């Protein structure tokens, strides 16, 4: 089991060659004794470690920016100066892209809220992390439930607040509930390069209201006039697409969206495919595509599952059908209780998950193929329900 202190190193892909950390530490201590490097016929001339302290600041930043990210994250603990370089313009320009990191499917379960299973989708390997929030923040001493993830940020629900957390940098922010007592549903975290928003619908005395927290102003906004009746399936969050969060209403199925900027609810003029037994929406989050996953059948029983893409004129264009044997397995594991199904996007994959099943069905968009991701080998057999999967793509500069 890996501890929280080992998490950042485990999130990086190994790139480049290793460096001698001792020689670089002399920047923090100019009086350090020079390090003698053994000579060989092919070795380059040795460099006095004290010369590092005489390099211009811009040149030093430029040199360090070429280090593999994993090595630099280890180096930054040697002195405050190295740590501050993490946010220098040169370093940011080189490592601001998430391509330096592995991406993960994250599994949480209510029976073990301090441990998470991570599946490295690039290496095809499982990892287990022990994440003790109480060791980081006294306010998280009780049980914290993971609600949502977005672009490197994780959001937990505490007893009377939310905790937004960057696992990579170990930075966090506690956001108090907008009111007490406070009950909510359809919680969604939306993170963009300029900040993040927390969205939820809350019960009032006789009506529902929409609450949105904007990290740029660190303030809650409340919007009344809640009109659409949305599904009570809390496993399915809002889907962020072109500045709005999209939801599906219960039968007769339709699409409703909420504009995060204006706070207005709308019903797009789009006709859904026929004979749908359940509907889920997925957005790719970057290329501006919105997908629909639906079970097709009659009398409340899905006989097939298909994938559509929103095309021109707000029409749904069929992309692919789930093979029959895979469809039979999916329908059997959810016992035709489609409220247990939820979907999300992960690095070119459309993932279909079941709250009562430890495996993930995913569609690889580039190859248009379906696959099953087997259960994590470390999961106890007694865990029969409560499986919550999330997409986690570490972002070094995802600010809380």
Automatic annotation (TrEMBL):
Task: Pinpoint the F-box domain residues.
Answer: 49-95
Region annotation Disordered: where it falls in the sequence = 24-44
Query: What residue ranges are annotated as transmembrane?
Result: none
Pfam families with a match to the protein in the record = F-box
Q: Secretion signal: which residues?
A: none
Indicate, by first and last residue, each region the UniProt record lists as having compositional bias (Polar residues): 24-33
Matches recorded under PANTHER family? BNACNNG10540D PROTEIN, F-BOX DOMAIN-CONTAINING PROTEIN
Task: Give the protein name, as stated in the record.
Answer: F-box/kelch-repeat protein At5g43190
Q: Top-down, what is the taxonomic lineage of the species of origin? A: Eukaryota, Viridiplantae, Streptophyta, Embryophyta, Tracheophyta
Gene that encodes the chain = LOC110772471
């Amino acid at each position: 089991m890996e501890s929280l202190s080992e998490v950042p190193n485990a999130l990086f892909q190994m790139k480049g060659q290793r460096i001698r950390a001792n020689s670089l530490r002399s920047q923090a201590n100019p009086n350090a004794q020079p390090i003698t490097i053994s000579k060989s016929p092919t070795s380059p001339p040795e460099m006095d470690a004290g010369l590092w302290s005489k390099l211009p600041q811009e040149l030093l930043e430029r040199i360090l920016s070429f280090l593999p990210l994993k090595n630099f994250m280890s180096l930054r603990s040697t002195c405050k100066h190295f740590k501050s370089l993490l946010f220098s313009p040169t370093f940011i320009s080189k490592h601001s892209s998430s391509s330096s990191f592995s991406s993960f499917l994250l599994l949480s379960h209510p029976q073990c809220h301090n441990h998470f299973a991570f599946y490295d989708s690039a290496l095809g390997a499982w990892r287990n992390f022990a994440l003790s929030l109480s060791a980081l923040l006294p306010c998280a001493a009780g049980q914290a439930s993971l609600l949502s993830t977005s672009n490197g940020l994780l959001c937990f629900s505490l007893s009377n607040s939310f905790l937004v957390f960057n696992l990579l940098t170990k930075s966090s922010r506690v956001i108090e509930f907008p009111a007490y007592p406070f009950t909510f549903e359809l919680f969604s975290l939306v993170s963009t390069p300029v900040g993040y928003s927390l969205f939820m619908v809350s019960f009032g005395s006789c009506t529902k209201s929409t609450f949105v927290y904007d990290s740029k102003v660190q303030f809650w906004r409340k919007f009344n006039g809640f009109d659409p009746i949305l599904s009570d399936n809390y496993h399915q969050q809002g889907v962020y697409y072109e500045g709005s969060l999209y939801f599906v209403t219960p039968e007769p199925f339709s699409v409703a969206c909420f504009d995060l900027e204006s706070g207005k609810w709308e019903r797009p003029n789009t006709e859904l495919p026929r004979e749908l037994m359940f509907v889920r929406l997925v957005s790719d989050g970057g290329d501006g595509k919105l997908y629909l996953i639906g079970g097709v059948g009659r009398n409340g029983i899905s006989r097939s599952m298909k994938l559509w893409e929103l095309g021109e004129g707000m029409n749904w264009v069929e992309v692919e059908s789930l093979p029959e044997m895979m469809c039979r397995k999916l329908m059997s594991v959810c016992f035709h209780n489609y409220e247990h199904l939820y979907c999300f996007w992960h690095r070119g994959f459309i993932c279909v998950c079941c709250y009562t099943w430890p495996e993930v069905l995913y569609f690889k968009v580039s190859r248009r193929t379906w696959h099953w991701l087997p259960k994590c080998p470390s999961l106890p057999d007694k865990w029969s329900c409560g499986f919550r999967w999330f997409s986690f793509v570490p972002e070094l500069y995802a600010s809380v």
